[in-house]
Amino acid sequence: MERLDAFMARANAAYYATHDPFRDFTTSPEITQVFGEILGLWAAVVWQQIGRPDPVLLVEAGPGRGTLMADALRAIGQAAPAFGRAVSVHLIETSPRLRAEQAKRVQGATWHDGLATVPHQPFILLANEFLDALPIRQILRRGESWQERYVDGGRFVEVPTDPVPLASSDSSGFIFELNEAALAFVEAVSNRLSIGPGSALFLDYGPEHSAPGDSLQAVGDGRPVDPLAEPGTADLTAHVDFEALAHAARKAGATPYGPVPQGVFLTRLGLFQRTGRLARSQPPERASALIEAARRLAEPNRMGRLFKAMALGARGISAPPGFE
Ligand code: SAH
């Protein structure tokens, strides 16, 4: 028997070590090159805002195939060469298989298992669909008692636990999710921002405000599957609780911005202008594919609303682009 977070951590480590996740699902950087390009330009503007530190670390957490970073660095090299010269790239990735993929697309990077070994220097951190992959706990109230979900032989079992101070008294039966790993990551980033210059940008899916409910989901072979069956064969994720993360960031001494719906954020950063410029130099079929890809990221009923952008900054620095 394993607590859900231990099960999820083990299942995802096995999954990312043995599978090409991008056969099972598609992420924004894999949908259009413009996504990584505009995040690179976002980082370039933030670098100006924080006083052009040189050197500066460009850190990515959970870089997948390395596509976002490759697209970002190409755009930075073209539009912000001084920033490009100041940058050293650090990738936080636990999967050896994905590290090898990243090395094909990003030259000269340094890899880390977590934030702890990333040097204490001015930094700009990017993370797309990273926090949703970190393990969650699920706790529910049954009458007067509190139960926590464990996994035993492919099924949930409930084990009595201490009350959690997150629910009102009429919440019987509702599931409350705690993402302690995501909170710890955001806290660690925020601690660094409380003592030195930097910024962080998280893009992920989840509601704007904390809400009870079971958001654990699994995708295997491109389809939704039972999250508890055959650990290691499916990608397990959960909604990101941006409100809880913003609270943790503020407590640790950073300033949170957003969350802003991804569609709003990317449109403010010029997703459609940049896509239009790129499309003009392409054959008609490729041009319409690029425009369709931009719409997929931005339209509210597609990835534009459920996905959100949240930034963290040091106190006293102006709001980063897209959060004004
Ligand atoms: N950002 C990429 C990939 C998202 S998938 C994209 O948008 O395409 C999640 C990524 O986080 C993968 O690279 C996975 O290996 C990595 N990851 C998952 N859990 C991790 C952990 N605990 N520590 C570091 N990386 C992790």
Taken in chain order, the helices and strands follow as: EHHHEHHEHEEEEEEHEEEEHEHHHHE
Percent of residues in helices comes to 25-40%
The separation of the N and C termini measures: 47 Å
Strands of the largest sheet, in order across it? Answer: 4-3-2-5-10-15-14
Number of strands: 15
Give the second-level CATH assignment, the architecture: 3-Layer(aba) Sandwich
What would you call the structural class?
alpha/beta
- Main sheet, how many strands, which sense, barrel? 7 strands, mixed
Instruction: Could you tell me the CATH topology label.
Output: Rossmann fold
Total helical elements: 12
Explain the overall architecture:
The chain has a single domain (2-136, 178-267, 297-314), classed as Rossmann fold, CATH 3.40.50.150. Helices cover 39% and strands 25% of the residues. It has 12 helices and 15 strands. It has helices spanning 4-18, 28-31, 33-49, 67-79, 81-86, 96-105, 180-193, 242-251, 262-268, 271-280, 284-298, 300-304, and strands at 2-3, 56-61, 87-92, 110-112, 123-128, 137-142, 145-152, 155-161, 175-178, 198-205, 217-220, 223-224, 235-237, 254-261, 307-314. Helix 3 packs across helix 4 (67-79) and helix 7 (180-193) packs parallel to helix 8. The termini are far apart. The mean pLDDT is 95. The structure holds S-adenosyl-L-homocysteine.
